[in-house]
Write a sequence for this structure.
């Protein structure tokens, strides 16, 4: 296979084009040293899996929108600063979308069209906000947005009725939107290394929430309702600047919840 790089030279390499049971066609260009995606990739409209991770990509063309049969797209560990709106045309994405470890400062609202996507990773970027349209991604089960520069989250987050895991470590969050109280399927919440000064009220009563990581925040006290969280199995409160010898914590421990302080 031959392709032309963005530097104008010709690079020869081998991509793995594989077929599984005659249905799932995969192009794997992981660590291929690419500055640009080979144009021929955008002509393969039957692709189901496209892996472009660990290259030097800085941009993607709108032509990516042609690959409407993709169910998995891996763009992690590149140098992308923006995403084309056509990413929202990939309505066949139902499994994984990896956008982590790039240089993104914003996400297109068109991502909201990916209503069947189960897993989205936008961690390790430079995001200051998430689009409210994210709330339309009704199929999301796991959302990872750790190590960005988020100060708030959109109210639309509460529309993610299927969400089970939410990873937000290493941002600048001072609270959560009230709509989080509608995440009735949420099991795991990571809020480590943020700027929270209180346990978000929106967590109260979430029926299936099992694990909450609040390490290294700015909490000064614990809410009276903490012991009422019905499914809590693990609560991490390490590296806080206040006395955690609290009756509420004893109650949690007595019922079998692991509390780390």
């Amino acid at each position: 296979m031959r392709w032309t790089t963005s530097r104008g030279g010709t690079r020869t390499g081998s991509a793995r084009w594989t077929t599984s049971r005659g249905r799932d066609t995969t192009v794997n260009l992981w660590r291929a040293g690419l500055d640009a995606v080979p144009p021929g990739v955008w002509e393969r409209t039957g692709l189901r899996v496209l892996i472009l991770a660990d290259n030097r990509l800085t941009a993607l063309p709108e032509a990516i929108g042609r690959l409407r049969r993709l169910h998995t797209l891996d763009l992690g560990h590149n140098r992308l600063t923006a995403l084309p709106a056509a990413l929202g045309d990939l309505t066949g994405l139902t499994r994984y979308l990896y956008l982590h470890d790039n240089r993104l400062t914003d996400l297109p609202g068109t991502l909201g069209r990916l209503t069947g996507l189960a897993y989205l990773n936008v961690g390790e970027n430079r995001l200051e906000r998430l689009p409210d349209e994210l709330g339309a991604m009704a199929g999301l089960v796991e959302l990872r947005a750790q190590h960005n520069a988020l100060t708030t989250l959109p109210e639309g987050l509460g529309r993610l009725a299927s969400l089970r895991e939410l990873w937000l470590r290493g941002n600048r969050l001072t609270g959560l939107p009230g709509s989080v109280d509608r995440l009735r399927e949420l099991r795991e919440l990571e809020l480590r290394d943020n700027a929270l000064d209180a346990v978000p009220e929106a967590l109260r009563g979430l029926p299936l929430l099992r694990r909450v990581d609040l390490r290294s925040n700015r909490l000064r006290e614990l809410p009276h309702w903490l012991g009422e969280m019905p499914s809590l199995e693990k609560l991490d409160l390490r590296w806080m600047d206040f006395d955690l010898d609290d009756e509420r914590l004893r109650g949690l421990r007595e019922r079998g919840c692991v509390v780390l302080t």
